[in-house]
Amino acid sequence: MEALGLLQWCLDGLLGLGLLWLAWRALACSDLFKAVVLFIAFGLLMALAWVRLEAPDIALAEAAIGAGLTGALLLSALARLRAIQANGTIVIPAQQAAKVQLSRWLAGTILLSAAIGLGYAITSLPPEAAGLSAEVTANLAASGVGNPVTAVLLNFRAYDTLLEMAVLLLALLAVWSLDGLPTAEAAAGPVLDTLARLLTPVLILVAAYLLWVGADAPGGAFQAGSVLGAAGVLLLLAGWRLQPSLAQLPLRLALVAGSGTFVVIALLTLLSTGRLLAFPPAQAGTLILILEAVATVSIGVTLAALFLAAPPGHKEKL
Amino acid sequence: MSTAFFYALVGVGLFCLGLYTLIVQAHLLRKILAFNVMGSGVFLVLVALAKRTEDALPDPVPHAMVITGIVVAVSATALALTLMLKLAKETGKAELAGEGEE
Q: Is B95 helix (H, G, I), strand (E, B) or coil?
């Protein structure tokens, strides 16, 4: 028992220091490409940290989004930035060295004291605090699902999730309205092509599994949606584009389906129970499954569309 | 010191590291990375402090908040990257104009 405890401490220590070191290198190294790759590694270590903190739901989301999708977004943005800045190197103008040094020292000192203050505030918190876990456990039976995190996301705090779907949609609308950017077109090699063909069905299957299992075990709409989004990114990287006949109305319907279903169910519950998104316990399980299934598709399509950055079928001009 | 407090302190470190970079680095891609690191720090503090339950399962409410937060962060990152590219296309550099410049 003693040896196991020591081993876990070593693991935690290495993980914590590794996180800080990777973040520092990603933020300080001079090559931007290296910085992005280090940031992806940072995301993977974060997923391990979530596992150590007994948060497997977050670990799944972080592995798919934090390391996968954010990394793909950053790498593609970097490639397009280099295409815009034709010479390829990013010129940092010479500033007054003394002034820069002074502001660095100033910011460093202030933030070091902020870190010490925050650290002191955290260590002076009570070592035991149950938070809301007792309330969640007591009401879990009425929520329609067995996984407490899914119960919070889609029943107790479903309002947050409704707004989050709106945020995703809003981000995509904003990205689409900033058109006229070059898209980095690279011909897919045979390896990427085969990989995309092999992995896409597997990823869709994994997404469906995560969606179904999320009712009682780690998983759920966000994890499934991000896996679906990753499948979309892979297809887009391999050169696949949506058929023009599907790119207009069907695509837009898929994008708004999540928020739309949420609003419809919210209005129905408002009419039947008098409270927004208060599910009757008997129907809660079914309602949550419908919401999650539609939200998964919307999240997946939105994330893949965010990666493409321009509306499909839109004239890509340099 | 328990595991919860250790990870919470790592979260504080990440937040301050990100904020420092956000202030001192000029390149916008670096600022976007710094913003993501700050977010990860906040998430780590939230989830670490949710683990302060004796032997029971951790508090699921912060967990749900962080999952929501991760998805919002990736959509905000996508928007920020597009804005950066747009700026680079208009001005030729991926930096904000400082004082004294046009």
A: strand
Model pLDDT for residues A8-41, shown as the tens digit of each residue: 899 999 999 999 999 999 999 888 999 999 999 9
Parent domain of A249: 146-318
Tell me whether residue B98 is in a domain.
no
Greatest alpha-carbon span in chain B: 59
Among A85, A104, A130, which residue terminates a domain?
A85
d(CA B40, nearest CA chain A) in Å: 8
Answer yes or no: is B82 within a domain: yes
Minimum CA–CA partner of A112 in chain B = B16
Do residue A73 and residue B81 have CB atoms under 8 angstroms apart? yes
Which of A93-102, A175-184, A239-248 tops mean pLDDT? A239-248
DSSP B59: P
Domain end call among A37, A60, A85? A85
Q: Is residue A110 part of a domain?
A: no
**Chain A hits for B19, Cβ within 8 Å:** 111, 114
Q: Which of A44, A70, A236 should be substituted to probe chain B, the one whose Cβ sees the most B Cβ atoms within 10 Å? A: A70
**Chain A: residue whose CA lies nearest to B89:** A84
For chain B, the domain total comes to 1
Most confident of A200-204, A243-247, A268-272, A277-281: A200-204
CB-based contact A291:A154 (threshold 8 Å): yes
Contact B77 A65 (CB under 8 A): no
Structural domains of chain A, count: 2
Cα angle B62, A8, A14 (rounded to 5 degrees) comes to 85
Nearest to A133 among B36, B53, B76 (CB): B53
Question: B100 in a domain, yes or no?
Answer: no
Residue A153 counted as domain residue: yes
Residue A139 falls inside a structural domain: no
Q: How far is CA A43 from CA A58, A60, A98, in A?
A: 12, 11, 35
Would you say residue B99 lies in a domain? no
Contact between A27 and B21 using a beta-carbon 8 Å cutoff: yes
What is the rounded average pLDDT of the residues A71-91? Answer: 78
CATH code assigned at B37: 1.10.287.3510
Q: Vertex A222, ends A15 and A8: CA angle to 5°?
A: 20
Tokens matching residue A251 = 């695509």
pLDDT of residue A316: 46
Same domain assignment for residues A183 and A266: yes
ipTM: 0.92
- A108 to chain B: closest CA residue: B20
pLDDT per position as a tens digit, B26-66: 889 999 999 999 999 999 999 999 888 877 788 889 999 99
CB contact under 8 A, B78 and A84: no
- pLDDT band of residue A317 (cuts 50, 70, 90) is very low
